[in-house]
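hey so i finally got around to running the thing on that chain from the lab meeting. sorry it took forever, my laptop kept dying and i had to restart like 3 times. anyway pasting the input first so we r on the same page abt which one it is
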Amino acid sequence: MASRPLFATARDGTSLFVQDWGTGKPVLLLAAWTFNSSVWGSQIVALNAKGYRCVAPDRRGHGRSDLPATGYDLDTLTDDVAAVIEQRDLRDLTVVAHSMGSIEAVNYLARHGSERVARLVLVAPTTPFIVQSEDNPDAVPRAMVDAQNAAIAQDFPKWMGENEAPFFMSDTPEATRAWIREMMLSVPLPVALACRKTISSADLRAAARAIDRPTLIVHGDKDASAPLELTGAKTARLIKGSRLAVYQGAPHALPLTHNARLMADLLAFMDS
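ok and heres what got predicted. didnt touch it at all, straight out
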């Protein structure tokens, strides 16, 4: 098999690092806020063993991708995903998106269409619209979002320490926690804050209603970062025919804390 390029090129010339492993039907893995493609390692190995090709990009400003000053708005991030899909000529694609990756995935379908996508898996999504507004009253108040962002801007490591416990399970190893802390802190703070602004401003209710592909939504009922009733449950009601799998007692970091169950559900969904 010929070697595959390590990078895709965004419309503005930004180089996007891409892990691309295996052969077979493709799976695109989109990471959470301040995570990079390395977080999908266990899933990549498991999916390769089942005969799937795994493509996992680093979002701009993350991991081994370029660090431009701009482009952290939703449409540019979505077009970055499209560049990866098109330059790798991915078709009959399963898109698996965790947390922030969900807004890129849902917006991709609205912005670029579903021709290349066969199915969608949203893991602890932040869709459809996480911030309170007049027509979205049961959501997170803007003042709370602003206060969180101010705390992150003042002392990101301190904020992480204060919010770490509910992100994982109590038995999540310290080595795993340290790995994720290091990954998150490797993202420059202006980039991290710009991405949080994008998450909070993303209103994808209309985009979710228009999705015409089989969709699996996986969410923990103890998710403190993206509470089930505000995100996954709402998204499931908007996407016609979608299936919501609720993991009892599970937090936000499902690819790390519930990998075995997540992989079983993912493989069953892709094989159905």
